[in-house]
């Protein structure tokens, strides 16, 4: 897989759990039957009804683009600002920059926290991506999925039963 | 948790916004689509393509039974959880005889365990079935030696014969089951068993549908045309748990009797009353929960089927060895 073929979700999963990245990439996905994720879906669907516009460019899907200000938004239902969210949005910026779309910044909206997190892409980030892509490739080249990570948040993960049964 | 919907009374089923509307001559019932896992249709119902598209979008299979309560087929929405990787590996496990028999063996081994567990339960309640139990145990030990699925099926047949021969001691109703079991399709006992089996089959099929497994690629049963043979494979494990145990209890308590069956030509079938009574208990059984050992939480009996599907996927992708679900209680 070429670096720019990844989706934002894959970059996100790389930071959350490599096993999840592996399974997800091979289309081993599960309907989320637990309430946490259903809530997530509802928030995605209903939080920003007026401004919301989803745009797909190549492999990436951006929640909505505020054209006047050049800001891409990502809505997250979690109660915590997470590294995975930040890198997902940085990846969108990286992707756009690689396609000569510059001067764009990002913003993550946390409706449950009533907070916004501004995201930009630095020179270091761009270098870091080289390493991230290389590591993602190593994970995805494995013949069998990486081990279970045994973290408390596994309980809320859509893959929980699959992983732990 | 999503639940199945069972419809008996003749009705018209429609889409009404994001809701399923069921209209009978007497009333109208609305059921929000998100609450449904699958639909069972008994009796006569009218539906249109608008509804089928709606059900398909919401990934809800519809199992259809004919007038006599015999399973006629499933409206299976387009597969949505497909994974090329899993499908290819699943086919590879079918094509390699050694890999195939490994899985097939696990199905029968678990089925035999669950059968023994049923028999053990009744032995502890004073039934004279020691002979069947010890013979089944002997056959169970030979399972691993079966060179192919054909031989395995043969052994499975022997186990089932012994199992059925114990029914006469297990069931206290005044009725010669032993004799009747051997005259398929024209007797009451057979009507209940086949109704129970078709319910287990459809439940398994609905669970397979929510995973990446291809329901047409099976290991014990030969993949056949026009049937989802993987559901037959997995149903072997769950029939003793979900259907047989229920049959024994209901007959022993007199909750089902010959009055619930009818004879038509050479066929005996469960009447509407019998089906309803059985289904009510069956549904309750699916929702019954146990504490799962490795997940460390309560899971329903129905969920156990899904978990076995997950275990099978893990086996197929080379992660962990599959073994079928065995009752430990
Ligand atoms: S349950 Fe845990 S180990 Fe499994 S995919 Fe989710 S986060 Fe990873």
Automatic annotation (TrEMBL), chain A:
Enzyme class: hydrolase
Presence of keyword Kinase: no
Family matches, as InterPro entries: CRISPR-assoc_prot_Cas4, Dna2/Cas4_DUF83, PDDEXK-like_dom_sf
Note on how the cofactor is bound: Mg(2+) or Mn(2+) required for ssDNA cleavage activity.
Domain (DUF83): residue spans on this chain: 7-164
Recorded GO MF terms: exonuclease activity; iron-sulfur cluster binding; metal ion binding
Residues in coiled coil: none
Enzyme Commission number(s): 3.1.12.1
Pfam (any one): Cas_Cas4
TM helices/strands, residue ranges: none
Required co-factors: iron-sulfur cluster; Mg(2+); Mn(2+)
GO biological process assignments: defense response to virus
Keywords on record: Antiviral defense, Exonuclease, Hydrolase, Iron, Iron-sulfur, Manganese, Metal-binding, Nuclease
NCBIfam families tied to this protein: cas4
PANTHER family named among the record's database cross-references: CRISPR-ASSOCIATED EXONUCLEASE CAS4 (PTHR37168)
Function according to Swiss-Prot or TrEMBL: CRISPR (clustered regularly interspaced short palindromic repeat) is an adaptive immune system that provides protection against mobile genetic elements (viruses, transposable elements and conjugative plasmids). CRISPR clusters contain sequences complementary to antecedent mobile elements and target invading nucleic acids. CRISPR clusters are transcribed and processed into CRISPR RNA (crRNA).
Family the entry assigns: Belongs to the CRISPR-associated exonuclease Cas4 family.
Name this protein carries in UniProt: CRISPR-associated exonuclease Cas4
From TrEMBL, chain B:
Broadest EC class assigned to this enzyme: hydrolase
GO MF annotation terms: DNA binding; DNA endonuclease activity; hydrolase activity; metal ion binding
Residues annotated to bind Mn(2+): 156, 221, 236
Protein name: CRISPR-associated endonuclease Cas1
Organism of origin: Desulfobacter hydrogenophilus
Cofactor: Mg(2+); Mn(2+)
Keywords: Antiviral defense, DNA-binding, Endonuclease, Hydrolase, Magnesium, Manganese, Metal-binding, Nuclease
HAMAP family: Cas1
InterPro entries: CRISPR-assoc_Cas1, CRISPR-assoc_Cas1_C, CRISPR-assoc_Cas1_HMARI/TNEAP, CRISPR-assoc_Cas1_N
Similarity remark: Belongs to the CRISPR-associated endonuclease Cas1 family.
Enzyme nomenclature, EC number: 3.1.-.-
Protein role: CRISPR (clustered regularly interspaced short palindromic repeat), is an adaptive immune system that provides protection against mobile genetic elements (viruses, transposable elements and conjugative plasmids). CRISPR clusters contain spacers, sequences complementary to antecedent mobile elements, and target invading nucleic acids. CRISPR clusters are transcribed and processed into CRISPR RNA (crRNA). Acts as a dsDNA endonuclease. Involved in the integration of spacer DNA into the CRISPR cassette.
Oligomeric and partner information: Homodimer, forms a heterotetramer with a Cas2 homodimer.
Gene: cas1
GO BP, sorted A to Z: defense response to virus; maintenance of CRISPR repeat elements
């Amino acid at each position: 897989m070429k670096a720019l073929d990844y989706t934002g979700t894959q970059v996100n999963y790389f930071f959350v759990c490599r096993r999840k990245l592996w399974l997800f990439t091979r289309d081993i996905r599960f309907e989320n039957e637990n309430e946490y994720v259903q809530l997530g879906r509802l928030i995605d669907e209903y939080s920003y009804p007026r401004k919301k516009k989803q745009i797909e460019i190549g492999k990436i899907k951006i929640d909505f683009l505020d054209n006047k200000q050049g800001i891409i938004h990502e809505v997250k239902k979690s109660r915590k600002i997470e590294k995975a969210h930040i890198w997902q949005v940085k990846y969108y910026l990286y992707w756009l920059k690689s396609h000569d779309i510059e001067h764009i910044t990002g913003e993550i909206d946390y409706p449950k926290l009533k907070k916004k997190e501004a995201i930009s892409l630095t020179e270091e980030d761009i270098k870091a991506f080289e390493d991230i892509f290389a590591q993602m490739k190593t994970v995805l080249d494995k013949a069998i999925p990486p081990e279970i990570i045994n973290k408390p948040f596994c309980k809320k993960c859509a893959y929980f039963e699959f992983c732990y049964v | 948790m999503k639940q199945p919907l069972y419809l008996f009374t003749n009705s018209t089923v429609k889409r009404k916004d994001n809701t399923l509307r069921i209209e009978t001559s007497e009333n109208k019932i609305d059921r929000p689509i998100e609450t449904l896992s699958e639909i069972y249709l008994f009796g006569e119902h009218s539906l249109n393509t608008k509804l089928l598209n709606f059900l398909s979008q919401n990934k809800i299979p519809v199992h259809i039974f004919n007038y006599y309560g015999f399973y006629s087929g499933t409206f299976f929405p387009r597969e949505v959880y497909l994974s090329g990787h899993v499908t290819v590996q699943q086919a590879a496990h079918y094509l390699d005889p050694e890999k195939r028999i490994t899985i097939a063996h696990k199905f029968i081994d678990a089925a035999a365990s669950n059968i023994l567990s049923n028999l053990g339960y009744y032995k502890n309640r004073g039934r004279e079935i020691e002979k069947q139990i010890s013979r089944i145990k002997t056959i169970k030990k030979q399972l691993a030696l079966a060179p192919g699925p054909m031989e395995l099926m043969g052994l499975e047949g022997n186990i089932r014969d012994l199992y059925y021969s114990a029914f006469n001691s297990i069931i206290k109703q005044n009725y010669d089951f032993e004799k009747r079991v051997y005259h398929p399709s024209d007797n009451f006992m057979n009507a209940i068993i086949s109704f129970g089996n078709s319910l287990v089959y459809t439940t398994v099929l609905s669970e397979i549908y929510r995973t990446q497994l291809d329901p047409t690629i099976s290991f014990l049963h030969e993949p056949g045309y026009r049937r989802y043979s993987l559901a037959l494979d997995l149903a072997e494990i769950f029939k003793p748990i979900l259907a047989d145990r229920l049959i024994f209890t209901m007959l022993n308590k007199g909750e089902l009797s010959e009055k619930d069956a009818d004879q038509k030509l050479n066929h005996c079938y469960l009447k509407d009353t019998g089906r309803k009574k059985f289904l009510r208990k069956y549904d309750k059984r699916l929702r019954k929960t146990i504490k799962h050992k490795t997940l460390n939480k309560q899971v329903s009996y129905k969920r156990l089927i899904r978990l076995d599907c997950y275990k099978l996927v893990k086996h197929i992708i080379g992660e962990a060895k599959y073994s079928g679900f065995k009752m430990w209680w």
